[in-house]
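Ticket #4471: complex job returned nothing on first submit. Input attached below:
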Amino acid sequence: VLTQSPGTLSLSPGERATLSCRASQSVNNDYLAWHQQKPGQAPRLLIYGASNTTTGIPDRFSGSGSGTDFTLTISRLEPEDFAVYYCQQYGSTPYAFGQGTKLEIK
Amino acid sequence: QVQLVQSGAEVKKPGASVKISCKASGYTFTNFYMHWVRQAPGQGLEWMGVITPSGDNTNYAQKFQGRVTITRETSTSTLYMELSGLRSEDTAVYYCTRSIEYWGQGTLVTVSS
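Support reply: We reran it on our side without changes. The output follows.
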């Protein structure tokens, strides 16, 4: 089970966002991904292997953590970053998702 | 470029089955695991299952065991997901994904009498 916190995060453009994902047991090989989803769109992979950024993702996005505790950080929020973020573990089946964190404009 | 193009929206009655397709292009289809994920209206993402690159093995989430079948057709680079015994709670957008990297555009399945 993956638990994300907070459920909703209200911030202003230019601020720093820190999103948390905690696993009930250690994630094999730190195979933890972060996806971004905007309304009406399919999710998009941002981070894989806990800290590796997908090609084309701005460097303001970064991932960290290992074992059971993981963090997605957005260093300076841009208007297009306000969305829902999901963590997903893919170290073993089932490839569960967290319940999501909604990042909204304050 | 990698593309996953899914079949169109479906409306089904309770108890019926639905089969959704996902046509892959832009890469070697037989080199990657393929997954299905669903999202009920206003809800989060739910992993349903995976099929191996060769198609000889599947793994399903316990919740869907006995109701879901994932298959793939190498000759057409197409992935399929069939869900039987539909109920209203199965109303959702269903996504195919290549590993965890690429997502299809989604297929809305509505279950209603």
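Chain A has a mean pLDDT of 97. Closing as resolved unless it happens again.
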